[in-house]
């Protein structure tokens, strides 16, 4: 049974407007909660997750810091779990008609969870649900010892995650500004967003989901403590060996590819179906939208190292330094710009 809302949760919901505010990172105003910065519209849902969401031991959570490969992970996990009902070669496969974000929902999507309703309760098991929530806010139920849920975390070189975040923010800001102008209480959304300002905010952790370092680090540590519950994947390694990583992902979710499937090349078919090139060509990804965010905005280059086309070497070294300091002694590292 889902836990009911206590006075503490209610109090937490009521003080959202008094949480520290950051207005410079479009498209949303950000509020700081539990040490992380969240787009204001999803804060009530983050509180509601703790209040009403009832995890099941068979749940698989797809975890990412924003702009680190969420869309890809959603596609891969969805295609893998549902391959019996939807063979990857089938012309009517859902991923040939729908955006991956329409196939796997975010836990913190606005209005999915309200103080007395959990839209996820209607989903059949095993559920695959995505979230950007930091470990510290998930740990109470989803990561609790007895919950049994599994987590697949994808991390990405912070320099590429930053560039992807900045370009996405610029793309979505104009549409968000138009939408915000129609609000009952219109708020200004900055539509020109320079890289230097974005960089400073990102390094300070004042970006959606930020700061990135503790986000990545806590899931990394959890994967070392409980490898059977937390699978830690790297975007760059997935690009380098997509089929090998697919096998890992399927095995971890408890649906490893059988010898017959291996012989038939099913893993490779899923990788092809979910490749950025294939997804970009899907009509729903060219013309559809998630609220005011056009689906095409989720598919840009999908490369490792694109930061070098945008950032100066000084910026790269500065960010490397920030990351290196934060990860020191953890056993987790990202290649420094100068070594690439
Ligand atoms: P770039 O902006 O560097 O191209 P998220 O899905 O977490 O929002 O991350 C978006 C990033 O993942 C973007 O990176 C996007 O191009 C990339 N991406 C989207 N779909 C992908 C896919 N199928 N394979 C690899 N990368 C993908």
TrEMBL record:
Q: Where does this protein come from, organism-wise? A: Triticum turgidum subsp. durum (Durum wheat)
User: What keywords were assigned to this record?
Assistant: Transferase
Q: Could you confirm whether the keyword Magnesium appears in this record?
A: no
Q: Where is the Sulfotransferase domain?
A: 57-331
List the Gene Ontology MF annotations in alphabetical order. Answer: sulfotransferase activity
Q: Give the family per the record.
A: Belongs to the sulfotransferase 1 family.
Supply the InterPro entries for this chain.
Answer: P-loop_NTPase, Sulfotransferase_dom
Gene3D superfamilies in alphabetical order: P-loop containing nucleotide triphosphate hydrolases
Task: Report the top EC class in one word.
Answer: transferase
Q: What is this protein called?
A: Sulfotransferase
What Pfam families does UniProt report for this protein, alphabetically? Sulfotransfer_1
Q: What is its EC number?
A: 2.8.2.-
**Has keyword Transferase?**
yes
């Amino acid at each position: 049974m889902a836990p009911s809302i206590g006075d503490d949760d209610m109090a937490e919901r009521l003080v959202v407007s008094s949480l520290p505010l950051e207005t410079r990172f479009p498209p949303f105003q950000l509020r700081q909660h539990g040490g992380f910065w969240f787009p204001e519209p999803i804060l009530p849902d983050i509180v509601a997750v703790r209040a009403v969401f009832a995890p099941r031991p068979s749940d698989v959570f797809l975890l990412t810091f924003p702009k680190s490969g969420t869309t890809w992970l959603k596609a891969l996990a969805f295609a893998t779990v549902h391959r019996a009902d939807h063979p990857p070669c089938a012309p009517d496969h859902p991923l040939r008609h729908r955006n991956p974000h329409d196939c796997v929902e975010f836990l913190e999507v606005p209005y999915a969870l309200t103080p007395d309703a959990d839209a996820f309760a209607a989903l059949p098991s095993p559920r695959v649900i995505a979230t950007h929530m930091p470990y510290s806010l998930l740990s109470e139920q989803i990561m609790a010892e007895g919950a049994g849920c599994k987590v697949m975390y994808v991390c990405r070189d912070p320099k590429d995650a930053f560039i992807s975040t900045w370009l996405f923010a610029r793309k979505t800001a104009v549409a968000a500004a138009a939408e915000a102008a129609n609000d009952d209480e219109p708020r200004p959304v900055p539509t020109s967003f320079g890289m230097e300002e974005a960089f400073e905010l990102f390094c300070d952790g004042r970006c959606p989901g930020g700061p990135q370092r503790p986000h990545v680090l806590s899931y990394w540590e959890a994967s070392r403590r409980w490898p059977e519950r937390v699978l830690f994947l790297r975007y760059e390694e997935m690009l380098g060996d997509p089929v090998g990583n697919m096998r890992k992902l399927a095995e971890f979710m408890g649906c490893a590819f059988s010898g017959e499937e291996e012989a038939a090349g099913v893993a490779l078919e899923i990788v092809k179906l979910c490749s950025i090139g294939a997804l970009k060509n899907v009509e729903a990804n060219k013309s559809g939208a998630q609220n005011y965010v056009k689906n095409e905005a989720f598919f840009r280059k999908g490369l490792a190292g694109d930061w070098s086309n945008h950032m100066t070497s000084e910026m790269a070294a500065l960010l490397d330094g920030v990351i290196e300091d934060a990860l020191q002694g953890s056993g987790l590292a990202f290649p420094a710009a100068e070594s690439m």
